[in-house]
From TrEMBL, chain A:
<feature type="transmembrane region" description="Helical">
    <location>
        <begin position="20"/>
        <end position="38"/>
    </location>
</feature>
<feature type="transmembrane region" description="Helical">
    <location>
        <begin position="137"/>
        <end position="161"/>
    </location>
</feature>
<dbReference type="InterPro" id="IPR013525">
    <property type="entry name" value="ABC2_TM"/>
</dbReference>
<feature type="transmembrane region" description="Helical">
    <location>
        <begin position="167"/>
        <end position="188"/>
    </location>
</feature>
<feature type="transmembrane region" description="Helical">
    <location>
        <begin position="58"/>
        <end position="82"/>
    </location>
</feature>
<dbReference type="GO" id="GO:0140359">
    <property type="term" value="F:ABC-type transporter activity"/>
</dbReference>
<feature type="transmembrane region" description="Helical">
    <location>
        <begin position="224"/>
        <end position="245"/>
    </location>
</feature>
<keyword id="KW-0812">Transmembrane</keyword>
<keyword id="KW-1133">Transmembrane helix</keyword>
UniProtKB/TrEMBL annotation, chain B:
<feature type="domain" description="ABC transporter">
    <location>
        <begin position="6"/>
        <end position="235"/>
    </location>
</feature>
<protein>
    <recommendedName>
        <fullName>ABC transporter domain-containing protein</fullName>
    </recommendedName>
</protein>
<keyword id="KW-0547">Nucleotide-binding</keyword>
<dbReference type="Pfam" id="PF00005">
    <property type="entry name" value="ABC_tran"/>
</dbReference>
<dbReference type="GO" id="GO:0005524">
    <property type="term" value="F:ATP binding"/>
</dbReference>
<dbReference type="InterPro" id="IPR003439">
    <property type="entry name" value="ABC_transporter-like_ATP-bd"/>
</dbReference>
<dbReference type="InterPro" id="IPR050763">
    <property type="entry name" value="ABC_transporter_ATP-binding"/>
</dbReference>
<keyword id="KW-0067">ATP-binding</keyword>
<dbReference type="InterPro" id="IPR017871">
    <property type="entry name" value="ABC_transporter-like_CS"/>
</dbReference>
Length: 253, 244
């Protein structure tokens, strides 16, 4: 494993924060502020505390997770499909990098980007809620694995996609609904039996719950189950992305 | 005869569409030569180059670079090859310097600053070091692509129609650069539609038509034996397209 090429791809991806600050950081901050104003202040005042914390505090971990997963997915897909259009992805294919190194380069870059996004949203949230972190290392590691999952998912989608239109299906019709139904704004305990059972098939539930555990020590699922779920998804997606690239699907004739 | 740096044996490529792009191609490219690969559009020139470089999969056949198989020992073989593709490619977010540093990084290189300066100087691009790829003219972008292919100091350079669509001045500059690369000991494989370009630069010439190599010969011998211009020789082997 050669680290220099991996870090080269990662650096190029993270540089997008500097080159596109409004898109990468400005947009998530603006939507987070809106969520806090509308859901936290306007509606949250009437909802009251959930699992012992205020409604604004309750939604904060989910908002971070939602922005991390959508930002990571959009980041890797837009970068990769652009490099397919501009023929610069060929620069990687003719280099001595292994397929796994190429995949890890993109993942590392998106993890870096996700950490910056998460920190920015957390700092923005401090305008509305008191500072509280129960398990900081848990949050850090958990965020890195979840961001990796969505970077890998986005990587596969971008390789398979023929145009930007196909890419837009996933964030709008899959990731966003799963985030909303994964318990950002409510605890699954509030749901009726069938909906509660169904929620446990949603991978975003484990990601959002794990994040809430990291901040407040409360969760809809136990941290061990959350870890098992994200690690399983990570292993599945890493293998999938690696094999897809190695197969040359949509990249090599 | 010097050492063969690229050896191609019985190479076949059939696309999923059914098109047989390469038919039983066998070829040796020798160290330090400029090898001109001529042929009409769709003859198989780019397919052959892309298979050697790792962009296209072969259907059957063997390819070695310095005696090593291009699939099994790709880390070694790719580090020896620089490819200038036909299509312009650039990252709109990177400056010329960042583009070259990134390219070096893909090959595992750090501290490429001095080498990048040297390459940019030799390609008259030093003043464009900080410029974004978006702001460059077509000719400059073409030179940046050549610079990218040279960052890792490859021993073999594939130039896939490097002068297509460039003005006379730049074409002459590129010819000078190709000769200079040969003086530096590099092996050049050049595909071109311009017969005068092959005549001016190449030591050996191959003509490929409909996926088959129909002629490989030393340029001097070719011209002497046939007592004709390359244009006439080309027309003898490729009758269905009039070359430039």
């Amino acid at each position: 494993m050669n680290l220099i090429p991996i870090l080269t791809i990662a650096k190029k991806e993270v540089q997008h924060i500097v080159k596109l600050p409004f898109q990468v950081l400005g947009a998530p901050v603006a939507t987070t502020v809106l969520y806090f104003l509308v859901f936290g202040r306007a509606i949250g005042g009437r909802v009251g505390p959930i699992q012992g914390i205020s409604y604004s505090e309750f939604i904060m971990p989910g908002l971070i997770m939602m922005n991390v997963v959508t930002g990571t997915f959009n980041g890797v897909t837009s970068s990769l499909i652009l490099s397919k259009y501009m023929n610069t992805f060929n620069d990687l294919l003719i280099s001595p990098m292994s397929y796994l190194e190429i995949v890890l380069g993109y993942v590392t870059g998106q993890v870096g980007r996700a950490l910056v996004t998460a920190a920015t949203i957390f700092l923005t949230a401090q305008l509305f809620i008191p500072f509280h972190i129960e398990h900081p290392f848990f949050i850090l590691l958990f965020l890195m694995v979840v961001a990796s999952c969505f970077a890998l998912f986005g990587f596969m989608v971008a390789i398979a996609a023929d145009n930007f239109e196909q890419l837009s299906i996933f964030p709008n019709f899959i990731i966003m609904p799963l985030s909303f139904l994964g318990g950002i704004f409510y605890s699954v305990d509030m749901l009726p039996g069938f909906a509660r059972t169904l929620s446990h098939y949603n991978p975003l539930l484990y990601m959002i719950s794990g994040m809430r555990y990291g901040f407040y020590g409360i969760s809809d699922v136990t941290p061990l189950v959350a870890w098992a779920a994200v690690l399983f998804v990570f292993a599945l997606l890493l293998t999938g992305a690696w094999r897809m690239l190695a197969s040359g699907y949509k990249l090599k004739n | 005869m010097s050492e063969a740096v690229v050896s191609i044996r019985n190479l076949n490529k059939k696309y999923k569409t059914g098109l047989q792009a390469l038919k039983d191609v066998s070829l040796d490219i020798y160290r330090g030569e400029i090898f001109g690969l001529l042929g009409p559009n769709g003859a198989g020139k780019t397919t052959m180059i892309n298979i050697v470089a790792g962009l296209t999969r072969r259907t059957s056949g063997q390819i070695t670079v310095f005696g090593k198989d291009v699939d099994r020992e790709y880390r070694f073989t790719r580090s020896k090859i620089g490819l200038v593709q036909q299509e312009l490619s650039f990252d709109p977010f990177l400056s010329v310097e960042e583009t070259l540093r990134t390219q070096g990084g893909y090959f595992g290189l750090t501290n490429t600053g001095p080498r990048i300066e040297e390459i940019l100087k030799s390609l008259s691009l030093l003043d464009k070091k900080k410029a974004s790829g978006r702001t460059l003219s077509g000719g400059m972008k073409r030179r940046v692509m050549i610079a990218k292919a040279l960052v890792h100091d490859p021993e073999i350079v594939f130039l896939d129609e490097p002068t297509a669509g460039v003005d006379v001045q730049l074409r002459e500059n590129l010819w000078t650069l190709v000769r200079r690369m040969q003086e530096m000991g590099k092996t050049i494989i050049l595909t071109t539609h311009y017969l005068e370009e092959a005549e001016a630069l190449a030591n050996r010439i191959a003509i490929i038509n409909k996926g088959s190599i129909v002629l490989v010969e030393e340029k001097e011998k070719l011209l002497a034996d046939h007592g004709a211009r390359l244009h006439d020789i080309y027309r003898k082997y490729v009758q269905d397209e009039v070359p430039v």
